[in-house]
Predict the structure.
Amino acid sequence: MELKQCINYLLTTAQHNIFQSLSNRLSQFDLTPVQYGVLDCIWKENATSPKQIAELLMLENSTVSGVLERMEKKMLIIRNISKEDRRYIQVELTDKGRDLEKDVVAVVKAFNQEVFSTMSAKEEEALKELLRKLALLDY
Amino acid sequence: MELKQCINYLLTTAQHNIFQSLSNRLSQFDLTPVQYGVLDCIWKENATSPKQIAELLMLENSTVSGVLERMEKKMLIIRNISKEDRRYIQVELTDKGRDLEKDVVAVVKAFNQEVFSTMSAKEEEALKELLRKLALLDY
């Protein structure tokens, strides 16, 4: 068993590099990759609850709660107490959070195009399928 | 551009799941995946310097320095001042660190076999190649 054959080593080193590159691209917007993920859940999926966002991003509720707190400080979102049920939090975009959509999505799209330009369309599809499988494996 | 097509999202969710599963398997030895990685560099590659370990694991020197400090507290390794050049640190296994090799490697090997049993040999090779490529992409 060689370390360089270990799935955890291979995923961790790949993720680290891609995460760093995307972080560099998003720094011009003062956004981290996970903050982009949260915004995207609201832009595209109209997610309004922290629980929904956690499920879409496959993160712990406590992680999302911390991310939302930092995003509120950056004035990207507002957290309101739900009018329908006061036990729940509702997440809402600010104008600043709404206005970022077009430029941020364009940067993320260009980044993905660059990454996937290094492989064939068939390899890209196979990689995506295998990563989705690994994200859901349950031991 | 959908979030679920984004390479960073796909890698991060896959890495998170696999890392958690391997962490669970290694907890019986009171080891984290990165601590296993460091031990493996010494077991298999006879790495003796923090710099060499950082290169093999594709980590920052400062990260490795923190990991080694925690591993010394757990009495897995000792950090000595190099006898050849007093500016350098030399990492050495303790008996405890040496004795873990057989059992830990067996657990990591079994874990990898389980993960890769979910795909064909061809898919496994393609995945490994693509992950190695993504780890080295330079933007």
